[in-house]
Amino acid sequence: MSIDIQIYPSLLTLVPMLFAPLFLLFRTKLVQKLLASLIIILDLLIIYRLTLIMPLDEYTGGWILRGIHLRFDNLSLIYTLLFVTVIGTSWLSSFKKNYPPLFYFLTSILLSTLNTSAITLDLFNIYVMLELSSIIAYILIAMKDNWKHLWASLKYLMISYFAFTMYLTAVGLIYMHTGTLDISRITGEIPPIIVSMLIVPLLLKSGVFPVSMWLPAAHSLAPTEVSAILSGSFVKMGSIVIFRLINTPILKQAYTPITLIALLSALTGVILAYNESNVKRILAFHTISQMGYVLAGGPVYGALHAFNHGIFKSLLFFTVGDQVEETGHYDIKALKHAKFPMHRYIFLVIGVLGISGVPLFSGFISKSMIIHHIPIYGKVVLILASVGTVASMSKLVSIGYRKSSIKLIPHYIIMATIIILVGIRYIEHVISLWTIIESLIVIIVGITIFLVIHPKHIPRILEKLDIMVIEYMLTLITVWAILYM
Amino acid sequence: MIYIAIAVVIFAIGGIGIIWKDNILLKLLSLGIMNAGVVALFVSIAGLKYRIPAILNTSGPYADPLPQAVIITSIVIGFATMSLALVFTMLISLKKGTLSSKKLQEDIDREH
Fold first, then answer.
1. How large is the greatest C-alpha to C-alpha distance in chain B, in angstroms?
2. Which of A238, A345, A351, B85 has the smallest count of CB within 10 Å of its CB?
């Protein structure tokens, strides 16, 4: 049976979606493993086949200009590869633990929604994917069935339901103004209020600072693999939609407020991370900071950083999460007594080198690209944020290691290999005396800060639900005001 | 235009409720009201030019059917989200014995 190449993009959605119910029907471990690998292999094959004929446009059902517009291009390629890698490695990791079939069912559908968000150009289709992936995330976060997890999840549910209702309103208003929901065919002026109502929910989904204080509690309380999926792939969904909107009338001259929010987020994220003592919350705050880099980088460099961040942040969440689950301690002081076993510590360090932007590791490539293509005020902020990244990551490294027997853990190795391969393969594009000196200075200053300044406890006022709604409204008004000027 | 204004007011009432009320159930209720505001907005957008519903044995020009198709999906999603939220609320009240968002937040800050 041969399938028309024109409908390959929609297969990215259909394959994980159709296979998902089988996880609930066949509950033996062996079948679950087979199904999981089948989905990953099929997905990779489809992506490979599509790279040969990129860029490809598809209208679902063959309804030219009427059906849902799907497009597979470079941006989709980077993001779909990231989603498949992160979810595949999380499955690999989860087979060693006692996850219910429901977990595989949900993550499989999550993969489908993430893939769809990477290829769709239809504003309403994006809304459905945003909501569906969020519903899955609520359940995944609350899967431990403890009141803390339930409350973290419920907080996220309320704020994002609030936001997406607004997104839907904006979509309705855009339809009223332009008569189309297809991003590539929107023409004419869109009023600033509608633009801000459309992009602030996407910022909330991307996890940047003022609008996504749901993120630390949710990402840190979730089980290891779920944290990796959420930080590695789930938060990237908002950024890809924003990148899709950049060259349309919606965001033509309006990228300034997003850059400003992204820079604020990059800096605040590391400050909050530095003053935190819960290891998983440190990583969660780093996600807020790194998503700032991604959005400040724009569709080319930002997308590359989104890929790199997804990989090293999942590796960090795997190592730290496994350690937390093994010892039962979240606090950095308590973990210093237990220490990391050698085979885990090595991979933690590789992840940290990646996120800190050390040459030969993947973070260096995308961070240097972003820093060199942004206006001067952005450069200063991003370099400061990099210093903060090194300083707060030093806290994790300072936990130290103890000798243990060497174990080969496949999902650690896959992630570490990708970090190093990307870091070496693309180094020629960014290598220069200046970038190397810059990264060395950042590392030295960062470690000095870690040794000199002691972290203080910051009260978590910003994470209250009503304050989150107010933060959201303030961001909305700020974006509107900047666009209006 | 008056229908759009009413829809916006309903939306705003819901938004204010989420900020002001402390009880989780009341917050969820406010969310529901907000969603109703959006539904009202969409329906009034659809009927902005023509009012006749797009049914076979009537004659056009019809009201735009696309916003209504869109809003049905949104109602279904809203239903799913709301059910999930209510289940979570029920479990929280069973395990913790309180529905005050203030108290839950204080406890989670202390313990995590």
1. 65
2. A345
pLDDT tens for each residue of A397-439:
888 888 888 888 888 889 899 999 988 888 888 888 888 888 8
Q: Which residues of A touch B31 (CB under 8 A)?
A: 158, 161-162, 165
B45 contact residues in A (CB cutoff 8 A) = 172-173, 175-176
User: b vs e for A436-466, b when ≥16 Cβ sit within 10 Å of the residue's Cβ?
Assistant: eebbeebbebbbebbeeeebeeeebebbbbb
A425 CB-near residues (< 8 Å, 6+ apart): none
Exposed (0-12), middle (13-18) or buried (19+): which is A58, by Cβ within 10 Å?
buried
Q: CATH code for B2-111?
A: 1.10.287.3510
Question: What pLDDT, in 10s, does the model give residues A93-151?
Answer: 998 888 888 999 999 999 999 999 999 998 888 998 999 999 999 999 988 878 888 98
Residues with Cβ < 8 Å from A414, sequence gap 6 or more? A85, A89, A92
Residue A297 near residue A369 (C-beta atoms within 8 A)? yes
Do A368 and A327 touch, CB atoms closer than 8 A? no
Radius of gyration of chain B (CA): 19
Question: Hey, are the CB atoms on B73 and A124 less than 8 Å from each other?
Answer: yes
Distances (CA, A) of A294 to A121, A298, B99: 20, 7, 38
ipTM of predicted complex: 0.88
- Residue contact B34–A138, C-beta within 8 A: no
A73 CB burial (10 A radius; 0-12, 13-18, 19+): middle
Taking the C-alpha atoms of residue B20 and residue B34, their distance in angstroms, rounded to an integer, is 14
Instruction: Render B11-71 in DSSP notation, one character per residue.
Output: HHHHHHHHHH--BHHHHHHHHHHHHHHHHHHHHHHHTSS--B---TTS-SSBPPSHHHHHH
DSSP H or E segment with residue A70: strand A69-72
The lowest-confidence range among A71-80, A142-151, A457-466, B43-52 is B43-52
Q: Which residues pair with A331 in a beta bridge?
A: A278
B67:A172 CB<8 A: yes
CA closest to A167 among chain B residues: B38
Residue A277's domain spans which residues?
A: 254-453
Pairing outcome for strands A340-341 and A401-402: parallel
Residues in chain A closer than 8 A to B95 (CB atoms): 146-147, 150
Give the mean pLDDT of A51-66.
81
Q: Do A128 and B112 touch (CB under 8 A)?
A: no
Residue A58 confidence (pLDDT) above 90: no
The number of domains in chain A is: 1
Residue of A122, A149, A458, A466 to mutate when probing chain B, most B C-beta within 10 A: A466
Place of tokens 């819901």: B14
Contact in structure between B33 and A142 (CB atoms under 8 Å): no
Asked whether residue A353 is domain-assigned, the answer is yes
Quick check: A47 and A56 in contact, CB under 8 A?
no
Can you read off the two tokens belonging to residue A281? 């919350």
DSSP summary character for residue A330: -
